[in-house]
Design brief:
10 helices; single chain; binds 1,3-dihydroxyacetonephosphate
């Protein structure tokens, strides 16, 4: 069984206008020859322009969310098919900012994941516990429950990744200890193998939450960590490249 190919994905969240395309180009130039796949997930309206700006580079462009339907009367939403049409190759689904802020349940995330597969866009499915859940000793149960509920059977044989993002580590500068990260990543791996047999061994499990150039090497070399989903530190080429080079 081949080891998962690592993936470093930048989640720009609601940051970035056309003025930021230069930063994306600097990332693409610096990431040539990276020891894994690199992606930038800008706001949806920037995907097409970024995909054009990065054409010919190895850096992929991704979305941050997609609707579970392919088209229809859903004001303000974007379908996975539209993301693909704009040039997105990947899409982040079930980020905690969507689970919390927009009440996305595991069922909704699973439906969105099916939509991404229909559109040929590779899903990055996010899971993660809150601080209260961790303090209550529920982290593993919460995370493995989200993996079971958010990853549909249709993922069998398809390219996808899971991102473990402890909610309390996002944008806070706090990170779990390495044993805590490894414990959760191993539990996710075991759950993936339960769900998808051998195919469950090949999906990278990304870590996300306050990944910076200074802590990237330690995190990226931890057991069962197959890359990173990076928020704040992906907005500046220098910082993001520092993380990519730690692979
Ligand atoms: P930060 O890297 O800013 O903590 O954000 C992590 C995240 O939410 C990536 O999806």
């Amino acid at each position: 069984m081949t080891a998962p190919t690592p993936l470093i994905a930048g989640n720009w969240k609601m940051n970035g206008t056309a003025a930021a395309l230069g930063e994306a180009k600097a990332i693409a130039e610096g990431a040539a020859g990276a020891a894994g796949r690199v992606a930038i997930c800008p706001p949806a309206v920037l995907i097409h322009r970024m995909a054009e700006a990065l054409a010919g580079s190895s850096v992929l462009v991704g979305g941050q969310d997609a609707h579970w339907e392919d088209a229809g009367a859903f004001t303000g939403d974007t379908s996975a098919e539209m993301l693909a049409d704009a040039g997105a190759k990947l899409v982040i689904l079930g980020h905690s900012e969507r689970r919390d802020g927009y009440r996305e349940t595991d069922d909704i995330v699973a439906a969105k994941t099916r939509a991404a597969l229909r559109a040929g866009v590779e899903p990055i499915v996010c899971v993660g516990e809150t601080l209260a859940q961790r303090k209550a000793g529920e982290a593993l149960a919460v995370v493995t429950g989200q993996v079971r509920g958010s990853l549909p059977a249709e993922l069998a044989g398809q390219a996808f990744s899971v991102a473990y993002e402890p909610v309390w580590a996002i944008g806070t500068g706090l990170t779990p200890t390495m044993p805590e990260i490894e414990e959760v990543h191993r539990a996710i791996r075991a759950t993936l193998v339960e769900q998808f047999d051998d195919h469950g061994k090949t999906a990278p499990i990304l870590y996300g939450g306050s990944v910076k150039p200074g802590n990237a090497a330690e995190i990226l070399h931890a057991d069962e960590v197959g890359g990173a989903l990076v928020g704040g530190a992906s907005l500046k080429a220098e910082d993001f490249l520092g993380i990519i080079r730690a692979l």
